[in-house]
Every structure is written in C-alpha cells, then in structure tokens.
Amino acid sequence: QGDDVPEDTHPHMLRWLDGSRINVTQMVPYQCRDMETFRQLYDNIIIGFKDIFTWICEMFETHLPCEYQMLINAIDTLPGASPSPFSPMASLVLNINVRTEAHRDGFDKELCLVMPVGKFSGGELVLVEQGLVFPLRNGDVAVFHSAESTHFNMSYTGCCCSFVMQTDREFKKWTNGYNRWLGIVFCTGLPMGVRGLTRTHTRSNPYSRVSGCFSL
To answer: Which top-rank group of organisms is this from (predicted)?
Structure first.
C-alpha cells in the first residue's frame, strides 16, 4: 500500500532506507497463480458452466438487487480487459469431496454463494446461528453472509464438488483509494470501470442473517 510515499516519485523508483526496492507487484489486484497452474481446468470450467454462471448472475440481480449492485461496483473498479466470469463475484473456489468444519469466512465481502455438483446424498448445508439446514442437491444454489454465519456441510456419500463464489472484503482498500496509491501523481491514471479477477482468502467475524436461496 502507498502509505506515506512521496507523491511526485514514480513507484518503481521508490527505495527502502537500506536501499532495497519496494515491492510494487502487488500495488494492484492480480490474478491467482492457480489460474495459470491449472489453466486448462480453469478454461474447461468457464466454458462448461458458462450458462450456469450467467443464470446465477441474472438471479442475483433479480432477487438481491442491492447486494448485487454493491458487489458489481467493486468488480467495476478492477484493472483488466475482461469481466469476471463469476459476476457479480470476483472469485471461484472448488471444493472437491470436502466436508467442512464449522467456520466463518471473515474476509468475504457481503455474500458467499455455494452450489454443489455431483452424484451424492447427504452433505446438507448448516447455518448454526439461524438453526437452518438446507438439503442442497446437485445444482442447488445457496447465498448467505458467510462472514456473519457459522456454517458447515454435513457428511455425505458419493462424489460431490462444491462451487464457492465470493469477493474479498479487502476490496474496499482498492475501491476507496486504490490501495492508498491514489494521491501519487503517476497513479492518477489507474483504470476505472474495467472488470477483472483477483486473488482472495478467507476466515472469521460475528452476527447472523440469511440473504437468499434458490435452485436450478
């Protein structure tokens, strides 16, 4: 982040007091390394589930318009030439044959979307504070506040892959001042209105409410 850096010096010319260079490779959001490592798998998912991702985006905009707009506004400030294929979310995580322990994803922004895919029985999604159990089947979609609700999936038999779509709440540091580089003369041309993908992480925070649940 560009805290206390001189406004008239190009970021590439900045140095620490010991003379070493400042790492500027993370001054803007960047794509996850896994996208390159598993490029063929990533491309296959984007192509094979394109219609599903489009449908999810449409349902999001229809049933959760306010949340949709907040998420899409964050994506619209990112650098990059192409829109997020997981719109209105920025990231997709695949859990293959995983039973999660009870947890909260404290770094998720607003909402998290979960869609199980496969031939399985069991594996219900549990929201602890609300006392709710969702018997999600192949292609069902649940949307909830993952940072505010303790959640997990129950044991199951068969094969199950869950698609988890979310946006990192750290985006606010980018949307509210471009990671604090906005005041730098050489950074005033940072792109607006262009969408892209970025790396994300996850874990904890309190509260609780359900935002929506819909299925194919």
So the answer is: Eukaryota
**Quick check: 174 and 60 in contact, CB under 8 A?**
no
For residue 150 the two structure tokens come to 């303790």
User: Which region holds residue 118: left if phi is over 0, alpha if psi is between -120 and 50, else beta?
Assistant: left
> 120, 163 in Cβ contact below 8 A?
no
What does pTM read for this prediction? Answer: 0.69
Counting every residue written for the chain, the total comes to 216
Give a three-class secondary structure readout of the chain. CCCCCCCCCCHHHCECCCCCECCCCCCCCCCCHHHHHCHHHHHHHHHHCHHHHHHHHHHHHHHCHHHHHHHHHHHCCCCCCCCCCCCCCCEEEEEECCCCCCECCCCEEEEEEEEEEEEEEECCEEECCCCEEECCCCCEEEEECCCCCCEEECCEEEEEEEEEEEEECCHHHHHCCCCCCCCCHHHCCCCCCCCCCCCCCCCCCCCCCEEEEEEC
Kindly report, residue by residue over 131-154, the tens digit of the pLDDT.
Answer: 999 999 999 999 998 888 899 999
Structural domain spans, the chain: 30-215
Q: Specify the CATH number of the domain 30-215.
A: 3.60.130.30
